Amino acid sequence: MRGDVAEMDGVSALPRKNGELDFAEPWESRAFGIAVAASEAGAYDWEEFRQGLIADIGAWEAGHTEDDGWSYYDRWLASLEVLLSEKGIVTPAELHDRMHALEQEDDHDHTGGH
Predict the structure, then answer these.
(1) How far is CA 19 from CA 5, 6, 14, 24, 45, in A?
(2) Which of helix, strand or coil describes residue 50?
(3) Which of 6, 42, 48, 106 is deepest in the core (most CB within 10 A)?
(4) What is the pTM of this model?
(5) pLDDT tens digits for range 81-106
(6) DSSP H or E run through 20
């Protein structure tokens, strides 16, 4: 993992368990990977993403309590979506359409059972 990603601290520190990154759901690891890959591809500077994440966490904390359903990776994904939209990489409409498609996929049985 890139040093600038691994060394994030403070409110932007990555959730860890026993020193390893901790992802509660598969989508969280995908969102993490997309953010890192997009930065490595030159879509944006990692510090730009990190600062957006810090601002998003701060805004969420100002209006909520942890009892309101805190999720680090919800904030991560929201920050990523905003940055990709600001950079013109994706539009809000494209994000909406993709989220709708993913929700439809989640409504189907993926276990392979009949």
Answers:
(1) 14, 11, 10, 15, 25
(2) helix
(3) 48
(4) 0.77
(5) 999 999 999 988 888 788 777 777 76
(6) strand 20-21
Between the two ends of the chain, the Cα-to-Cα distance in Å is: 40
How many angstroms from the chain centroid is the CA of residue 112?
28
d(CA 63, CA 23): 25
| Per-residue pLDDT tens digits for 38-74 | 999 999 999 999 999 999 999 999 998 877 888 899 9
Q: Which amino acid is at 63?
A: G
- Classified as helix, coil or strand, 30 is helix
Residue 89: partners with Cβ closer than 8 Å, 6 or more residues away = 38, 43
Percent helix, strand, coil in the chain, to 5, is: 65, 5, 30
